[in-house]
Amino acid sequence: MGEPDRGRVRRRAAVALLAVAAGLVVLAVLGAVFVLLPGVVVRHDLAGASVAAEDRLKAVNDVRTTLLQVVGGLVVLFGAYATWRQLRVSQDGLRATQEGYVTDRFSRAVDQLGSDKLDVRIGGLHALWRIAEQSDRDREAIISIQAAYLRTHLPWPPTGPESPAADVHINDIAPLETRAADAQVALTALGVLCQHREQSWVNLGITDLRRADCDGLWFHEVNFDRTSLEAAGLYRANLTQTSLVSVNLRHADLTTAILRRARCVLADLRGAKLVRTDLRDADFTETDLREANLRKAVAHGAVFRRADLRMADLRGTDLSTADLVEARLTGAMASEHTRWPAGFDHTAAGVVVTDDPGPEPSPLLQPPGMTQQVPPLR
Fold first, then answer.
1. How many CA atoms lie within 13 A of 252 on its CB side?
2. Which residues contact 114 (CB under 8 A, 6 or more apart)?
3. What's the 3-state SS for 11-28?
4. pTM (2 d.p.)
5. pLDDT band for position 108 (50/70/90)?
6. What is the 3 state secondary structure string of 296-359?
7. pLDDT class of 34 with cuts at 50, 70, 90
8. How many Cα atoms occupy the beta-carbon half-sphere of 71 within 13 Å?
9. To bridge 279 with a disulfide, which of 262, 299, 319, 332 should be the other Cys (CB 3.0-4.6 Å)?
């Protein structure tokens, strides 16, 4: 035997002797507790009083029973504590294993985004989406990755040979889910995950999102500055406090969308559909809204300074507290249900009063906005 083996044998022998000694000590303590202690307790309680032997023996047995119950309770408590500690250790190990698994999935999904194959990139985007829904600590990073993916793959104006040129008529451009399916997946995931994010702003500025499907998505505090969303479907989208400076929203469908406190300065919304849209406190300074459909929209506190609303449909629109200073309204349509700011002379502004259109048709019975052929602007 070598020297290390002799050392291990000695250590094992020492441990065995210690275990035996500990066992003997425990037995001695238990013997003292159950054999000697009950008699001492009974003698102390009797304080020298004379009792029958049978009564003394019964009292001693009662003390032993009580001590046995106490020891049993301590054993149960120790067992419960040991089980709890083991459970904590197991949970920590499981958590570490899960984090390692998530990290591996995250790395593989990011690697897939650089693939030349469309289906591989889509798979990577879906994998990141799934990870973000399961891991709160990774959600912000994944949102940033998806936004960067859209900005780099769909810049505006377009630069890639496969992207439609900036001057191509919108009716000749296929929906985003057809011409760039991976980008539509990233945009949809972003619009779902932004509902539960913690960071304040997400940057999607200067991006080509023509004919994108954004119906029902959540873009609260997202930067769309100088992005092209021409003919995009934004039905019931949440664009609260969104930055839309110099954005192209021509012919976009924003029916029942929420644009509260949105900043739409210098934007192009010609022919856009904003039926029953929430425009409260939004800023449309110097925005082009010619031929836009704002029927029954709520625009309390909205700013339309120097905005171009010529030939816009304002029938039933609530503009009672809106700022219309220097707004151009020649040829805009209004009805008896349109509400104007106090003292505002809409007739002198060139507004044409016509009949109210009545109830709006259900959007569920109409084709999606990003698939419709848009009419030419007048």
1. 29
2. none
3. HHHHHHHHHHHHHHHHHH
4. 0.75
5. very high
6. CCECCCCECCCCECCCCECCCCECCCCECCCCECCCCEECCCCECCCCCCCCCCCCEECCCCCC
7. low
8. 12
9. 299
